[in-house]
Records
---
Amino acid sequence: MNAPLIEVTDVGKTYGSVIALRDVSTVVNSGEVTCVLGDNGAGKSTLIKILAGVHRHDAGEFRVDGDPVRFDSPRDALDRGIATVYQDLAVVPLMSVWRNFFLGSEPTIGFGPLRLLDRKRGKEITRNALARMGIDLRDVEQPVGTLSGGERQCVAIARAVHFGAKVLILDEPTAALGVKQAGVVLKYVAQARDRGLGVVLITHNPHHAYPVGDRFLLLKRGAPLGSYEKSEIDLAELTRQMAGGTELEALEHELRTAET
């Protein structure tokens, strides 16, 4: 059996006396979506920064394809096939879709200092890469800022896939989107999964996570609240745990007692 694309075991991170993350374990397999859920301050951002090479973990073990790793930079993570699409997307709104698709890696023609952008090839590559993800844009010359939030997310996903990502980390991709646009993004998350990528979906919304997720890691105040395969938990229970079901039940009981 192949080793997981990513495996973290009892991973932790501290900043001085502040414990940002502790005892977190999960795996990311090829062709699966691992969902990391939690409210603000739960530790989601710290975990993805460790996976993406922004920060080093202080405790536990982080393996990629079975090999122990300790990244020094996001470049190290990219070199191992781990691409991260952050919430702000790192796009240039006034630049065309195809230029944003490459962002510094544009194809060129010519030699030495006389090299010029190969606009025709760049647009063709972009159009084909988007089409393979099922994204049909009318004109890849249009500014990326004219696209909807969901379409911009999809361009960023297609870009990561095209440049060889084996693991795709998505930081709250549906947070600022309406219902329809969120559905569009989730469709492309499923397409990336079906193409064999391992996907890490960071979200605070169980209704977005459950339809596409294969595994669910719940975090609270930097610690794991629970880790489940899809067969082990249904949407109602996932939502209850995300909402702090036990705490809400205790509060409801307390309020009922106070009324009587």
Note: Residues 6-90+166-259 form a domain with the Rossmann fold fold (CATH 3.40.50.300).
---
Amino acid sequence: MTIRVLIVDDQMMVREGFSVLLGAQPDIEVIGEAVDGLDAVRKVAELRPDVVLMDIRMPNMNGLEATREIVAADSGAKVLVLTTFDLDEYVYQALRSGASGFLLKDASARQLADGVRVVADGEALLAPTVTKRLIQEFSRLGTPKAPTPERVGDLTERETEVLVLVAQGRSNAEIAEHLVVAESTVKTHVSRILVKLGLRDRTQAAVFAYEAGLVRPGG
């Protein structure tokens, strides 16, 4: 199945470069480009992409605001944030806004295409450095919107265990190896976790785990 992608960046050369790289992939189709956040929100509603490659620093409406609006509209589009630096202070905010992951702008063509595929498939694209920083940020800021105990209590003991491993940035294969179960079993657990908690993807599940205090610095 072809993955439909919208590229959002205020620099024409960046948009064209990503468009060429992704357009060369047999399973990816670039269906449009947007020049800022406002344009992105309009194009998502009009074109219904599967994945949005979202720059952060743009005029009129930045990528954070656009991501929040796109997620709130429940369009089904997954947002993959593009950033120049892996220590960009906005990465944390973008994930809190509902982005499904982040990718550096200097990523290779293969990394870019693989990132789009991972996010489209509902996986979280989180580098270990970002996962660690998320935990540190939640520790520093506290839990202003901590989930209710009832929501955490809806999970079984095994589902809670899987949720913690997801929050640590582990893939389904790594979780399966750790728990000594089939990868299909892990996928089933993850799906049930998302349904029970009312979450869109693994990234939101990871943020939920941090806010619930299930994952702590050094944990």
Note: The longest helix spans residues 183-197.
---
Amino acid sequence: MTTAGTPVVRILLADDHALVRRGVRLILDREADLQVVAEAGDGAEAVAVARGQDVDLAVLDITMPRMTGLQAARELGALKPDMRVLILTMHDNEQYFFQALRAGASGYVLKSVADRDLVTACRAAVRDEPFLYPGAVTALIRHYLDRVRHGEERPEQVLTPREEEVLKLVAEGHSSKEIAELLFISVKTVHRHRANLLHKLGLRDRLELTRYAIRAGLIEP
């Protein structure tokens, strides 16, 4: 589909709040070159939708049930390397910002200024150009200077993507059987991942795993 010869960017929008999706959709659909072709209520649904839909760009919230936007971004990058991803979030948070970059996101847009920045960010993403709000640029420069000053970067990530998935689901209160069904793995494998999590993080039980998941931004407190 094209408009006056301009290819239309097909967008997948994922946010667990229907009102937010509606507002964002209004911003995007009024542009001739942008069209929301699919919506999802969480990261897992976004990945499932992307498997069966022809989508150019995914716009993902960070904090969603079952699978966060950051986890979904990694999944989508592996599933469809040519698809671009934007993180649209209420969190003006350096930790989330750097995690988004590591997850393969092309940009990081704050919901508070979505009406100003989102359209520009979408167009930049499909041109394979990064989009960063001013505070993120400042954080990126400070991070780079800190790395130079200390001569090295902090270790990438303690947990593997699969361990992070299990941690999120454990913290959300799912049983081992439910986690196994959601991730298409055996209960025995879930138990192994949980044991690895406790060992790696130096924690003792589900409660401490839940506290860690809140600090890591995997679930809301």
Note: The first helix runs from residue 18 to 29.
